[in-house]
Write a structure and sequence with these properties.
Layout (H helix, E strand, L loop, with lengths): L13 H4 L23 H14 L5 H12 L5 H6 L7 H15 L4 H5 L1 E4 L2 E4 L12 H10 L11 E5 L5 H10 L4 E6 L2 H14 L3 E5 L10 E6 L14 H4 L15 H13 E10 L5 H10 L2 E3 L3 E2 L5 E8 L2
Parallel strand pairs: 3-4, 3-6, 4-5, 6-7
Antiparallel strand pairs: 1-2, 7-10, 8-10, 9-10
């Protein structure tokens, strides 16, 4: 197919968007050598989908629609269909090409769009925040299941999310509990906390955010303490897929030499922070259940059997104070 103009494929590096501690430089920008000028919206979507498919990216059709829709100002499905035959302007074609190039460089689609769906909530992201994964919803499910069922939505639960990032777990719990529940999110990254505050404001959630390492700067009693700590062993970060190691912030991945430093820090604060009948729920890395259970037991915490995610992996561990 011939076109009348070529779209620019110039792309700033990930680090140029905002100073942060991403694990590595983004992969080199692919030389895709294409032109999107004088194509309709639908033809552009098909062209982008073909390029994504050629590079082995899953969900190429869906991601192409998201990329084109985002470039055109956030077109929803119905608006996309209505404009299917409209020819892109040169500026629009340039924007689509730039976004598609970022995806071909393995930048996650959520980072390109600037938001991620989690527990039915649309959460803003920035370079300092970890992209929430579907498996982390297991932590939300486990926390809700561990709470007393009587008057669940009217009790004044006090919730703390240690290492909150975008605020995903905390805001999901507050959305379910509503009533008088109040949330506290902590993080060592000021930029991540800014993102979490914006998300809380968008959800009209009752929450405050504190810059500190895990629970160091907060006080109890906490009824529900949750965390998805960094749990990748330091030497294993280099083996992660490019979408993770090059774009997620290192502090959200690096769990120390054995991947367990975060759990030790959480356990050290648990007896000080948890209410007598409080519950602690953490996300587990693959194969870490026994080790985390042992760390918690040494700190006076009794753990239940882990809850499995949809892939059948032990993903969330629930613990309470020993008598």
């Amino acid at each position: 197919m011939t076109t009348s103009s070529s779209a620019s494929l110039s792309l700033p590096t990930h680090e140029e968007t905002e100073g942060n501690d991403v694990c590595a430089q983004a992969p080199a920008e692919p030389n895709i050598g294409w032109s999107l000028g004088a194509l309709s919206v639908e033809a552009t979507r098909r062209t982008v989908a073909g390029k994504l498919r050629q590079h082995g990216l899953e969900s190429a059709g869906l991601e192409a629609r998201l990329i084109v829709g985002h470039a055109l100002g956030g077109l929803e499905h119905t608006s996309f269909a209505a404009q299917a035959h409209r020819v892109l302007t040169p500026k629009e074609a340039e924007t689509v090409a730039a976004l598609a190039t970022r995806r071909l460089a393995h930048e996650p689609i959520a980072r390109i769009l600037g938001y991620k769906e989690f527990w039915g909530l649309s959460l803003k992201l920035n370079p300092a925040t970890f992209v929430p994964r579907p498996e982390t919803e297991t932590v939300v499910t486990a926390a809700l299941a561990a709470l007393p069922r009587d008057n669940l939505r009217t009790r004044a639960f006090r919730i703390a999310d240690l290492g909150t990032g975008s605020g995903a777990i905390l805001l999901a719990l507050l959305a379910e509990l509503s009533g008088e529940a109040f949330g506290i999110g902590t993080d060592i990254s000021a930029a991540a906390l800014d993102c979490a505050r914006d998300n809380a404001a968008a959800q009209r959630a009752s929450a405050s955010f504190i810059a500190c390492d895990y629970g160091a700067a907060i006080e109890g009693p906490i009824d529900v303490m949750v965390s998805n700590p960094p749990y990748v062993p330091r030497q294993g970060i280099a083996t992660l897929e490019a979408e993770v190691r090059a774009f997620d912030p290192r502090h959200a991945l690096d769990g120390g030499p054995d991947g367990l430093d975060g759990y030790r820090a959480i356990a050290a604060d648990a007896r000080r922070l948890l209410a007598r009948e409080g519950v602690l729920v953490v996300e587990l890395g693959y194969g870490q259940g026994a080790a985390v259970t042992s760390i918690f037991a040494a700190a006076g915490l009794a753990s239940s059997a882990p809850r499995y995610d949809l892939s059948g992996i032990p993903r969330a561990l629930v613990a309470r104070l020993m008598p």
